[in-house]
Amino acid sequence: MFGLPVSRGVAIGRAVLVASSRVDVAHYFIDPGQAEAEIGRLRRARDEVAAELVALKEDVPEEAHAELVALLDVHLMMLHDETLAEATKQWIEERHYNAEWAMSAQLEVLARQFDEMEDDYLRERKADLEQVVERVLKAMTRSARGAGGGEVVPSARDFAGEDPLVLVANDIAPADMLQFKRSVFTGFVTDVGGRTSHTAIVARGLDIPAVVGAREASRLVRQDDWLVIDGDEGVLIVNPSPIVLEEYRFRQRQAELERARLDRLRNKPSVTLDGQRVDLLANIELPVDAAAAIAAGAVGVGLFRSEFLFMNRGGRLPDEEEQFEAYRDVVTALGGLPVTIRTVDIGADKPLDRLTAHEQRHEHMLNPALGLRAIRWSLSEPDMFAEQLRAILRASAYGKVRILIPMVAHHAEILQIRQALDAAKAQLTRGGQPFTDVDLGAMIEIPAAALMMPSLLRHFDFVSIGTNDLIQYTLAIDRADEAVAHLYDPWHPAVLQLVSQTIAHANAMGKGVSVCGEMAGDPAFTELLLAMGLRSFSMHPAQVASIKQRVLRADTRSLQSALLRVLAADSPQEACRTQMGAR
Q1: Alpha carbon of 168 to those of 20, 172, 194, 219, 220: distances in Å?
Q2: Does residue 576 have an active-site annotation?
């Protein structure tokens, strides 16, 4: 099978399927000692559904009695069927899945068996099974919320001596990615998604091979199939032959040797051959990621995506104190190195659990990338925005902090942002809470912002170019839609012109400028960005070493002489290879 290669390398392992469902299902591993408790949750949910079905039978109208009662009896029979109940318990006991995941995994197995039946009547009973399972899943969700659930912390598992695992899904929600990123999977495959979908970004950042947009993968691959994920070519091989398997294992060993060689650059200063210092910063999503940034040799955090503190919480937003503690932990962990905290960038591929009534009515009809997201959402929630600004300001008392505002495009927004920041400072001053002055920056991810740089820079201390969204909005491409993913082109001349002009304007006005999008961590763009005058790159910690290697080998004087020829070329990617020696 073929898809889009979004994270380089080779992964080999057994398939773990995350079945798609009309009910949102949490996917996480439990500790072995929790298995009985999870089975108990499953049993209570099944008993609750059984009671519901029996009550429904008693309330069936007389005129429709026979047919509906027979249907409910079928549902009750399926509910108590051993192939559903016992096999679901087995997923919990042997794979250590949480109860919801175990139930949806067994639904996937049984649904395929129904699909393969020749009898039309029996084949159509799959819909009944799906309805029964969804009732149980909803019952477990209700019980979890009633018990104060909603936030899941995945347990660490020791897979020593067991086969490596790769994840196969129709798609993976950002909330699940937060859980899986600290988990055991050595690779990802999804049916949908583009090169800069959140799944792809996390996989690249973790240096985990991944293929997205593989269309039929989650339907054709079966649980425990042996898979090879070729993240270089976008190929998925199911149950490979021994010869093919050995070839890919050889490639894995070669990649491990290359990573070990790059690790030796960790503590080497990032300076070009002609003496230009280049700051290599880290993108992080949670406070625990700060340790990886330091270990990678990053000289600060160029992007702390604060929205991940707001997600996977059952709709409950973090209050000021919780946010302050998270920001303070990152700042103190960096030990004096700068930390740039982006205000919440909710929307598009990172929705909140909590939706307003208006958003619930329109979430399936409108394009979320063009809707109420990022700073637009923050300004529409002034109390939440004020809490976040106060929390960030309070963290500034513990180290060097900068605030970054996403999706800035309008002068009126800039004035509102400044007023909100001044109000937050005044509130802290009245309360006697310490803070320091912080630099305020704007994300350049909308063409309008790039085109108004001279005006915009009068109000901000620095800018950070979010290339993922800048490409999306410049080319009118939904970057998470595999149907148009082939048109998402970071080498498009219009995109490169906007990036180059933004860097040039910032440098000319003496304002800081960095790139924090995917371009920053892609070695293919390093020489070009250096030629444009960029001296600050922010990327996932796993990408720092490979970018540092390119920086150490670069001479910015010779690169700059070729810049105009590359920007004027019909094929900038090819021109970059020939004119700048970029690979």
Answers
A1: 11, 9, 16, 9, 10
A2: no
